[in-house]
Amino acid sequence: MFFKASDHEALAMKNILATYEEASGQSINLQKSEFYCSRNVAASVKDSVASILGVQQVLGTGKYLGLPSMVGRSRKSTFKFIKDRIWKKITSWSSKCLSQTGREILIKSVLQSIPSYVMSIFLIPSSLCDEIEKMMNSFWWGHNKEQSKGIHWLSWDRLSMPKNVGGLGFKSISAFNYAMLGKQAWKFMTSSGSLITRLFKARYFPRSDFLQSSIGHNPSYVWRSIWSAKFIVCDGHKWSIGSGHNISIWDQQWLVNGAVISKPPNLVEELHQLDVSDLFGDDGKHWDVNLVNSLFDASVADMVLRTPLFNSVNHDKIIWRHEKDRTYSVKSAYRQCVENILDTTIFKFLATGVFFGNLESLLKLKISFGVCVEIVFQLELALTKRVLIALICVWNSIQIWQRCGLWHQVQHSLNTTTSVSGCVLELAQHMAADHFSLFSVLLWSWNQAQEMKQKQSRIQPTIAGTRWSKPSIGRYKCNIDASFSTILNKVGIGVCVRDDQGSFVLAKTEWFSPIMNVDIGETLGLLHAMKWIQDLQLEHVDFELYSQIVVTKFHSKNRDESELGDIIKDCRTMFNTHFRNSRVEYIRRQANEVAHVLAREATSLASFHIFIDVPLCIVILL
Q1: Of the residues 10, 97, 189, 482, which has the maximum number of CB atoms within 10 A of its CB?
Q2: Residue 480, beta-bridge partner list
Q3: pTM of the model
Q4: DSSP state, 479?
């Protein structure tokens, strides 16, 4: 609570608190209450206010709900308590008794979670983040208070890489901080009615939205922190087109894949205020092709016409591009932030596993010794000596070593060492730099190839011979499928209705343009099939389609802000309104072949068709 430091306002505050106690039945604990005055307030006034309120006067603001009440000029000292808590945890563990796996678990589950609460609202100084990461790095390599010296074989930046690109998946403190702050920024963009959004908007961006806001004059540290994460939501957001009235054509991310149309410098005044709805046709929610082609050049016009429009999306809204349900998540934001902050190019290149095609190009590859040490470290964690020998001594591998002129040294190292690291480090000492770089890349690539082979071997084969089955007595079965033609830029929909005898009743084909996401195409097929069945006034219908994702989302109650989620809502509404004793079920492709052939046929037809007789394309399937 804030008030002017005077006897009059102190008495008014005391009366307010007394009224609150009487009305709520709750009593304020004055022993746990404090008040703080600025340095410009006279000592006599401070004593008088403390006497009136009956609370203790403090020199600093302290913490409230675990967060600093005020952030001074020295932000590092303000947030130093985070470092102290982490250090206290580290010193309480005896790293001599912990395995490498144990340290990894403690770092990920305990140490990295300590600053999360503070980072959700404040930007931690980069120097403090570096010190915290150094402490975690020292703990990882087995150093503690008693054993503070030693070699850090890898930097924290390398350890915090994802495992699929050669790291260990530790968090980058700075990147995670920005991802957490981005969640607050996302609320400013999408929850305009919330109290905190209205408060910050009135103070910092009253005449614009968050994306066009500036840091302002004399901002609070909370606003400065959230504003610093604006680059995350700028990169990750996209407009979902509803009415189109709230989306400007220029400098907004509304095109397919979040592309932007930059405003030309010589644009005539009449076109400055154009919004997306101005590009719609007069007879519905679709692009006015002639207008689009006249306004933009060929490449931009093609992007506009390839941006799908959905009648199920009624309102313009901002969605998050990096999640399937289009809602912001710290996980996906962190992943994008890591790619922007940390350089993963070398590791992505090493993790591809495509190095066996042209060995001469490998000889031209220059890899630093640091990368070689990282490869050694990863092999030490991933491989045993027996596995290493198996990788190196397979006949195909021997041929590769021989072609590279490395087999003699590799064989000698295998015979004289007893560990993975010993073998590879001996090669590093005696091999020429370019030869060892080539050896490291080949060994890593072979390991990646074996892992991929093992994953493929675990994939269960699809069940063969699955056949379509007729519905129960008195019911109809409606099979639905979608087909996608990139060449024709079409999505074809095939629908076939059969009765309880398995006899053909009706079939329908239609298509949409432009081409769109597979799940959205399948969902549109379900929606249009329901509309058609409702027009036919059929009841007791089993809807079957080959899309586990669509069926799962149809029966799920989870929040989904995507275009797919809006179409699913329309499907649910129609299903609950018009269909009783009906079902929406998943079916395998082999049992949905009739609808699949109809959908594929739909992409080659110029118009929509309803078939009373069995179409020729599916005669042999019925």
Answers
A1: 482
A2: 495, 545
A3: 0.73
A4: E
Q: Say whether both 617 and 481 belong to one domain.
A: yes
Q: How far is CA 21 from CA 4, 14, 122, 189, in A?
A: 22, 11, 33, 37
Highest mean pLDDT among 87-96, 135-144, 278-287, 420-429: 278-287
Q: Judge whether 105 lies within some domain.
A: yes
Taking alpha carbons only, the member of 382, 357, 345 closest to residue 442 is 357
Q: Which of 156, 177, 198 is the last residue of a domain?
A: 177
Indicate whether 253 belongs to any domain. yes
**First vs last Cα of the chain: how many Å apart?**
76
Residue ranges of alpha helices (H) inside 492-580 are 518-536, 548-555, 563-578
Q: Please check whether residue 2 lies inside any domain of the structure.
A: no
pLDDT higher than threshold 90 for residue 159: no
Say how many domains are in the chain.
Answer: 5
**Cα-based distances in Å from 73 to 67, 79, 126, 456:** 16, 12, 15, 56
- What is the spatial distance between Cα 229 and Cα 222, in angstroms, rounded to a whole number? 11
Is residue 200 a part of any domain in this protein?
no
Helix (H) or strand (E) run with residue 48 in it:
helix 43-53
Q: What is the DSSP letter of 585?
A: E
- Separation between Cα atoms, residue 162 and residue 171, nearest integer Å: 9
pLDDT tens, 384-401? 444 455 445 544 566 667
Residue 155 sits in the same domain as residue 287: no
Q: What range does the domain containing 15 cover?
A: 7-60
Amino acid letter for position 525: G
